[in-house]
Amino acid sequence: MKFPLSLLTGLVLFILPSFAAAEAGWTDYAAIAELVPTARPYYEVHLEVKQNPSGCRNSTWFYQDYGLRGSDKMYATLLEAVQSGKRVRLYVTGKCNLHGYSDFSAVGILP
C-alpha cells in the first residue's frame, strides 16, 4: 500500500514543529503560583513565567519525576520559595509530558 506524497508531507509538517520547538534552557524568574505533590510519579509546579524555552504547549506548568536524582532537594527548594515568597527559575529539558507541561532538571532561587 502506497501513501500519497501529500499525506506523508502533511503528517511530517504536523509532527515536526512540536519537536523543533523543544529546547533546553532557563526560564525567567517568577513567583510560584502553585506547587502540587501528586499520587502520580511526578510533582507539578505552576510558575507564571514570561519566557519558557521548552516550547511545550502549556508554558506555565512544569513537572519533575519523584525518582529523579536530586528531585527531593529541588522540591525542598521550591517549597522554601513558596513559604518565603522568593522567586525561582527552572532549567527546562525540552521534554514535554502529555498535558504539555515542561520537564525540568534544576531550580534557581533568588536570595
Explain what the structure shows:
This protein is an alpha+beta fold. It has one domain: OB fold (Dihydrolipoamide Acetyltransferase, E2P), CATH 2.40.50. The chain is 27% helix and 32% strand. It contains two helices and six strands. Strands 1-5-6-4-3-2 form a six-stranded mixed β-sheet. The longest helix is centred in the N-terminal third of the chain and has 16 residues. The protein is globular and about 60 Å long. The N and C termini lie far apart (62 Å). About 9% of the residues have low confidence.
Structure annotation, total helices: 2
CATH class: Mainly Beta
CATH architecture: Beta Barrel
Q: Helix content range of the residues, please? A: 25-40%
SSE pattern: HEEEEHEE
Outline the low-pLDDT stretches: 11-20
Q: Distance between the terminal alpha carbons, to the nearest Å?
A: 62 Å
Let me know the average pLDDT: 87
What class do helices, strands and sheet pairing give?
Answer: alpha+beta
Q: How much strand content do the residues show?
A: 25-35%
**CATH topology group:** OB fold (Dihydrolipoamide Acetyltransferase, E2P)
Assembly level: single chain
By DSSP, the count of extended strands is 6
Number of domains: 1
User: Can you identify the CATH superfamily?
Assistant: Nucleic acid-binding proteins
Shape field: globular
Compute the CA-based radius of gyration.
17 Å
Largest sheet: 6 strands, mixed
